[in-house]
Amino acid sequence: MGKVRVGILGATGPVGQRFVQMLANHPWFEIAVLAGSERSAGKAYGEVVHWILDTPIPPEVKDMVVAAGTPDALQGRCEMVFSALPSGAARELEPQFAAAGFPVFSNASALRMEPDVPLVIPEVNPEHLALIRVQQERRGWKGFVVTNPNCSTIHLVCALKPLHDAFGLEQVFVTTLQAVSGAGYPGVASLDIVDNLIPYIPGEEEKIEREPLKLLGTLVHQHVEPARFAISAAVHRVPVVDGHTEAVVVKLRTRASLEEVAHTLRTFQGVPQRLGLPTAPQPAIILREEPDRPQPRLDRNAGNGMATTVGRLRPDPVLDYKFVLLGHNTVRGAAGASLLNAELALTLGYLDEFVDTASLEAFQPHPATTL
Amino acid sequence: MGKVRVGILGATGPVGQRFVQMLANHPWFEIAVLAGSERSAGKAYGEVVHWILDTPIPPEVKDMVVAAGTPDALQGRCEMVFSALPSGAARELEPQFAAAGFPVFSNASALRMEPDVPLVIPEVNPEHLALIRVQQERRGWKGFVVTNPNCSTIHLVCALKPLHDAFGLEQVFVTTLQAVSGAGYPGVASLDIVDNLIPYIPGEEEKIEREPLKLLGTLVHQHVEPARFAISAAVHRVPVVDGHTEAVVVKLRTRASLEEVAHTLRTFQGVPQRLGLPTAPQPAIILREEPDRPQPRLDRNAGNGMATTVGRLRPDPVLDYKFVLLGHNTVRGAAGASLLNAELALTLGYLDEFVDTASLEAFQPHPATTL
Amino acid sequence: MGKVRVGILGATGPVGQRFVQMLANHPWFEIAVLAGSERSAGKAYGEVVHWILDTPIPPEVKDMVVAAGTPDALQGRCEMVFSALPSGAARELEPQFAAAGFPVFSNASALRMEPDVPLVIPEVNPEHLALIRVQQERRGWKGFVVTNPNCSTIHLVCALKPLHDAFGLEQVFVTTLQAVSGAGYPGVASLDIVDNLIPYIPGEEEKIEREPLKLLGTLVHQHVEPARFAISAAVHRVPVVDGHTEAVVVKLRTRASLEEVAHTLRTFQGVPQRLGLPTAPQPAIILREEPDRPQPRLDRNAGNGMATTVGRLRPDPVLDYKFVLLGHNTVRGAAGASLLNAELALTLGYLDEFVDTASLEAFQPHPATTL
Amino acid sequence: MGKVRVGILGATGPVGQRFVQMLANHPWFEIAVLAGSERSAGKAYGEVVHWILDTPIPPEVKDMVVAAGTPDALQGRCEMVFSALPSGAARELEPQFAAAGFPVFSNASALRMEPDVPLVIPEVNPEHLALIRVQQERRGWKGFVVTNPNCSTIHLVCALKPLHDAFGLEQVFVTTLQAVSGAGYPGVASLDIVDNLIPYIPGEEEKIEREPLKLLGTLVHQHVEPARFAISAAVHRVPVVDGHTEAVVVKLRTRASLEEVAHTLRTFQGVPQRLGLPTAPQPAIILREEPDRPQPRLDRNAGNGMATTVGRLRPDPVLDYKFVLLGHNTVRGAAGASLLNAELALTLGYLDEFVDTASLEAFQPHPATTL
Questions:
Q1: Domain holding C89: CATH number?
Q2: Is the pLDDT of residue A307 over 90?
Q3: Domain shared by A9 and A125, yes or no
Q4: Which of B335, B313, B334, B336 is nearest to B325 (CA)?
Q5: Residues in B touching A298 (Cβ below 8 Å)
Q6: Is B366 a catalytic residue?
Q7: A34-48, A354-368, C190-204: which has the minimum mean pLDDT?
Q8: I need a surface site. Which of B161, B220, C238, D218 has the fewest CB within 10 A?
Q9: Mean pLDDT throughout C199-211?
Q10: Domain that holds residue B123
């Protein structure tokens, strides 16, 4: 076996397409199965997918026959799955896959806040992967589910992590300007977004106000003690294809100079950077000095879409500091997040029982203790 | 004299065009002079203006010869002027016009924060017009200058006014998503805004953090004692033609229920509404209940572009309440603001020495004491 | 009876909304019934409609209960109906309404090309209304159906009509750049149109290549002899909210100078203009001289959205002349077209058996012979 | 010498930036000098450029000091230059560079139609490079100027070339929908393009109607006999960042079936494809079968932005066939066109007197006779 064989659940949707695109030339993983809805199953992927990315469909998957999205249909054909399922389907199917022995790396929101399901950003809380064992034991699953947060949460927490570690967070205000690709396809109607914006995305503010506290929480006695600070979120959909922009104001627990804050952001190194994971951006956070950056069209592809760009760091007249951040919402904000989680899990040995890592080309294991 | 003859300074620019459009059929004012730069002076308005509004140039001004923008050139031709001058020109020319005996109603930022220059929104601080007397005395001017705030400030403060009166403001966070028409013409390059947004507008955050304190301040002993609360602003330019959106979070001084806050906004009546000024929207604040409103394309023209629409009023997990507001940036946010100031000043008698109000058709004076 | 009571079929869709907006203050017609799908019937219009226009829902229809879209449900409640039904529903329901005694003024494409159904633009072929008698006789209907063409066809043929009359058309090439509102709601997905365009609209080129020949055809012996010239159409969807742009090249049968062509367009007067119909634009065709007009945002509302604006008239190096034209696609291109047809029919006496015209306020009949 | 050292004239503008981007990792060429206006000269490139591309400035040029744009300033520092100069400057400076011994590969329009200046698309008329000798002899230049056509012309003629060769062209109608990046920076004002389009680009129709005849013309007795067919062009600017779309109708001299036309386009192989030039797309023309392709966002990057995508090939009711084509306007339509010309010239030996080709790595010369 040269590479780990993976399946993609929900492979025809926008996030599924990003999984296909990002896995096409991956050094460790190869696409073995594309699973879709009943409507798609049995047909060639290239026929049923309404491809919306600006790179062509990878030729090797074009003629792949779409499989049904059930554990039975994938059994023996892949060692693990990535899930781009919508929330309702994820809640039902992901536990079935885990029970049937598949490691599931999911972008869906369904199980994120379950106490025994790791909600992980490798740069932020890699140690939370240890919940895998708790989950397996508690639920009697042979496989497991690992989740990543909402697209807006990911980039926000990437930027907050070094500040929280260094100075402690007390209050966070975040206002988002989110790209239309975040709404899936067909998603937002063009009449609602040409010469317009919508100050509302169902369920989004709740996710942004809740998920960071689990991500920045502490693993104690087999559960995550949430971080203690307050978040206020206000979200907007804007006429941008890809790239979420977020205006942030923070109150810190300890006093810090502007230069200290800048230095903390600029020098941040996460575990994926230290491990040199294939999809990890280097650096994870890009701090720009220009007065008018980041901008979606210019900065969303930074670090191959995996970096978070921060700009306009400045003192705030009410709290401590404000800044604006930007990141790609379907790369780092979705498929790339699950992929990096899988790279981390593989590297730390969590896939050892599912994959013969010795036979993997181009792969160097790192024991979890090196974190 | 059937109507007050007015001049427009900076008549060919985008705000100048709005003045022309809004004054075209005004019951009290008529356009007597259009003043422009040296390049335009002496030529027909229809020839030199690059008209960007979606209604045609009013036929009666198309052939009007553009005058030079000096007091001499306008002397005897109009009783007062509206100024759509850029800031630099305003700082130089507006005092000359006031000294030469013209009442100047200015949209420019140049003199807004001068202690003896009224910065007025008729719904918010009509009593600040009393600074006119202070200004005339201190500077020895026969005329005077009255200013209105920045486009983003106006709608923000319209919404804050009833809350400040009822509950007191302690902290305000505002994140704006501003339309491209706010940058003038040619303004923002299309390459910077198609599939993009810019998280920066020079000088804008400073104005939004400063002007509201003067507007909500108290007139004591011939000067304005600024209001005491803290404002944090973060501004963005988005691909919308007209209509600024603002996401707001407030901390109040006294406890208020959601229904009390909603009721306060919904029932707000300002002086222009009570006086029935021609350009006053009725109501000044529209509170919408739908989860996804206001939106620029749908709500910017509410109240003929003079109303402020508030929506998504909800409790905030960090402070007290958050909401989103929207208003037209070149109507209420610019030309309409100056025009309403002029209507207020005329009604309250501040133009009595310049205009024979008795001969005005369709005009009912109200003594200032009725405020 | 002060006004003709009308029903609107398909009242909740985008074209239905335009009917509501345009009929709200109409001098001759008043909205008596709003009919919708089963899902909407029985509920208040304001609750079920997803209103997408930038003027508010007229207050008088907000609480109107939506009726089922059947002849029975409308019987006795209105004298005639406007149809904004989708094509499939129109093909089934419009004949039922006509059979039940309703005059139907339809924007749907279903029956347009039926030999005994008038396809009419009042400026172009008002005399084709005479097919009403043929239709009633042939089908045994008490009522009738009158249709108007496709949104792109209407503005194209408005501009071609005077040229065809004066010089004869031989070849017409038209390339359209069509607004997203033409696709209904939700219509085009935002991911397909932000920083993008689509060179395809199903069925649209066929309509543009076929309908003009019937419209410019001659009524002989109870049927329409189609005009004889060739049309080539290529259509595109572009990121514009309202207003279709069309680039046209024409080959004429007789030689004409540029000035003759311009004069012919500039001086065109149609029957609606001569009759002074309430919704008729004056003039029907606006010929602009600027090098860069018409533009959708600036010119779509010309003549209250009912005029066709032509610009860039110039010699063509291959055929004779080329020009660009623009018109509002949901006003003149849809609801306004049906409405003007109804105004024409009423004026010419085609509604005499359905309406007591003597009791109508503000209405002056013109016998058909005056055409 | 590992690579040919090149200079870029007009390096800070949008096309200059594309040259920088495309030359950054080129196997044969390396950027030795960046030349700019007086305002930029002497400063670091990274400081003076307003970088508008969505990939970062290549690190190796960021600190390069911008040179003055004169032959003296570049003498000895590079073997040849690419010109991204505006037309006026090109007309003056390019002859000076050629006279001073530099081969100039220019994207400017200034000299394109000069009888002794090659106007070349390598897939279309590589043999026209022979005019270099005529030009040098006639003007006494040691260097020379080679030009490429206008961005819209390039993709149009790429698609027309195989049809002209196989069937002969008689009439061509083309309507363009052009991206805003084609207008440079700041270029089109956002107020002119958000929810809008402009049916006019100065000088563009003339170029499209004229340049193809030279490109498809025949080299006889040291000059180009223009091709004999008629072209009609109508151009529009639309809210798309990159990628020009063109709707084309053609009349052929000999009868051809739809399948013959499709086959001719699908199997086209140009000289750059046969030579395997580094920047040549493979294939040069992509023929798509979907009804709704090509689209700018999805297809502009085909062949790394160097391919022309054709779609919707279908019979035309007036002439013979119609189709829509799309290509990247600043890659293949500008910098990439000059670059491919240079690769062709180097390969065919036209740079032998300027460059020690024997010492070039990764380069295989092909004698001109192999064409």
A1: 3.40.50.720
A2: yes
A3: yes
A4: B313
A5: 196
A6: no
A7: A354-368
A8: B220
A9: 98
A10: 4-148+333-370
